[in-house]
Amino acid sequence: MLKLSKKVEYGLIAIRHIASVNNQISTVKEISEKYSIPSDVLAKVMQKLTKGKLITSHQGAMGGYTLARGADQISVMNVISVIEGSQMGIAQCFSEEPENCSIYLNCTIKNPLGKIQHNLELVFNSMKVSEIV
Amino acid sequence: MLKLSKKVEYGLIAIRHIASVNNQISTVKEISEKYSIPSDVLAKVMQKLTKGKLITSHQGAMGGYTLARGADQISVMNVISVIEGSQMGIAQCFSEEPENCSIYLNCTIKNPLGKIQHNLELVFNSMKVSEIV
DNA sequence: TTAAATACGACTTGTGTAGTCCTATTTCAT
DNA sequence: ATGAAATAGGACTACACAAGTCGTATTTAA
Ligand code: SF4
Ligand code: SF4
C-alpha cells in the first residue's frame, strides 16, 4: 500500500541511466544487465515510456533508446502516469469515476483527502530526473 | 498503486465520526450503518485502532469506542501505521529489510526516493483528524 | 439471565504485481 | 540477400494483497 510498483522503479532507473550517459543510445540488454533488472519486464516498461513520449526508440540493430526531452523536464509524476496508464489517485474517487465508490455520497473524508492528493502531486511533480543523476 | 486501502479510509471515517459527536461513545453498528461500511470489516479496523491506542474500547452492552486522545493529536499517518501494521514505505527498502530488494546494491534511485518518502511523511503527519471534522 | 456489544480466527473471492515465454518486426552490417 | 541485433507486443503463470464473509467466544449493563 502506497508503494511504487517495480515497473515505475525500473523506468526511473532506466531514464536516469540514459541521462547519466549523456543521452547516448542505450539498449534494454545493457540496462537490464547493469542494474540486474529482468530484461523482459524492462522491455515492456521501455515500450510504455516510448508510447508516453518520454523516450524515443530506435529500432533494428544498433538501436536502443534515447530521452525524448531534457532530464530536467521529466518528473517522477510523468513516469508514474505513463507507466501506470492512469492518473495517480490516493483514493478510488480521484482516479476513476466517483460513483464507483459505493460510499461516495456519505463519505466525509474525500475533501481532506483531496488536499493530501494535491500535496502529493506537488511532491511527485517537483522531483525531476535531472535531480536523480 | 499509491492508493490508501479501504481499511484506512474506514478508520479515518470512524475516528472523524467519533470526534464529530464530541467523543461520545459510538458503536460499530451505528457507524457502519451511517456510512454504509460493512460492519465486519469495520469491526476489525476498530480493533486495530484500539490495539494501536488511538481509540479506547468499552466492552459489553452499552459499549463502543471513544477517542484515546484529542482529534488534533491523531494524524493520518498514525491511522495508516496502526492499521497497516508497519511503517509507510514508498519502496520496499523503506518498509522492510533493504537486503530484500535484489537490486539494492545497484539501485541508483533509493536516495532520491528517500527524499520523496520524507516529503510524503510530512504531508501525512501534518494532516490531523481535527482538520477533517 | 439475557441482550448488546467487542474480540478474533478461518475462509473465500477478486484484483493487481511481477515475471516468463514466444513470436513478429525492423534495420544495420556484411 | 542474409543474418544478427535490437525493439514490439501478446499470452500465460505464480504469487501476494485487498476486501469481504462467516462463525464463535467473551464481556458487561440492565
Ligand atoms: S469517496 Fe471517500 S471512500 Fe470512496 S474513495 Fe473517495 S475517499 Fe475513499
Ligand atoms: S533499492 Fe531501489 S529498487 Fe530496491 S526497493 Fe529501494 S528503491 Fe526500489
Structure description:
- The structure is a homodimer of 133-residue chains.
- By secondary structure, chain A is mainly alpha-helical.
- Chain A has one domain: Winged helix-like DNA-binding domain superfamily/Winged helix DNA-binding domain (Arc Repressor Mutant, subunit A), CATH 1.10.10.
- Helix content of chain A is 50%, strand content 6%.
- Chain A has six helices and two strands.
- The first copy, chain A, has a two-stranded antiparallel sheet with strand order 1-2.
- In chain A, helix 1 packs across helix 3, helix 1 crosses helix 4 and helix 2 packs across helix 3.
- The longest helix of chain A is centred in the last third of the chain and has 17 residues.
- Chain A is elongated.
- The two termini of chain A are 27 Å apart.
- Chains A and B meet through helix 1, helix 4 and helix 6 of A and helix 1, helix 4 and helix 6 of B.
- Bound molecules: iron/sulfur cluster (2 copies).
- The structure holds a DNA duplex (30 and 30 nucleotides).
Low-confidence sequence ranges of chain A: none
Order of helices and strands of chain A: HHHEEHHH
Distance between the first and last residues' Cα of chain A: 27 Å
Number of helices of chain A: 6
Number of domain modules of chain A: 1
Largest sheet of chain A: 2 strands, antiparallel
Named CATH architecture of chain A: Orthogonal Bundle
CATH fold annotation of chain A: Arc Repressor Mutant, subunit A
Q: Fraction of residues of chain A in helices? A: 40-55%
CATH homologous superfamily heading of chain A: Winged helix-like DNA-binding domain superfamily/Winged helix DNA-binding domain
| Structural Rg of chain A | 17 Å
Secondary structure category of chain A? mainly alpha
Bound molecules: iron/sulfur cluster
Give the strand order of the largest sheet of chain A, numbering strands 1, 2, ... along the chain. 1-2
Q: What is the general shape of chain A?
A: elongated
Oligomer: homodimer
